[in-house]
Predict the 3D structure of the following.
Amino acid sequence: MTIHIGAAPGEIAETVLMPGDPYRAKWAAETFLEKPRLVNEVRGMLGFTGSWKGNPVTIQGSGMGMPSLSIYANELIRDYGAKTLIRIGSCGGMQEKVRLRDLVIAMTASSISTPSRGIFRELNFAPCADWSLLQAAVRAAEAKGTPTHVGGIYSSDVFYDERPDLNEQMVRHGILGVEMEAAELYAVAARHGCRALAVLTVSDHLLTGEALSSADRERSFADMVEIALEAAFA
Ligand code: HPA
């Protein structure tokens, strides 16, 4: 057990899917895993372990924002031996071509700061996805026919942003979408020699103001979970 995860040693798989929302972890585990077992409920941040096509998988909520994700990613890797971590979440679209429900696969994640920032001091570390996972996720998305964009995203510290000029710069520089976790996931995984990827569905759009209904969100979430699982075991 760790401070934030109550699973016994051996109860966490080497492959972990990380949605922000713990109830999404429950839904995904019950929908896609064989024999899902609740392995963590500390602070209500639910985690489940089961198997997919015979492969052990844990689906553990990360909470919202990089400080929360960082706690879970660190404990999963350092204490439980996780090796492959895939964030499954949502993002706000930042380009015209990126539509609601499309998939965004994050090659890199820009940020103002991450919980790892202190280590790098004056260096601007460039958090990037694991290539093998990225390539496999793109192939799985293509096979499913899901409209997919691959490129840079922006991991923000704020949802209610009082600095719209930063979003404008991200749009101007071709950033596909904004979310709040991937840059730290990529940094922590890199530090420990693990593979990481963020697969996101576009739930709202910064240029048009549109947003998905919760029923639509669930449908796109299902495709994303399957693509993440295919990528993990390709
Ligand atoms: N901003 C930040 N994070 C998000 C958004 C957004 O618009 N949509 C989904 N995650």
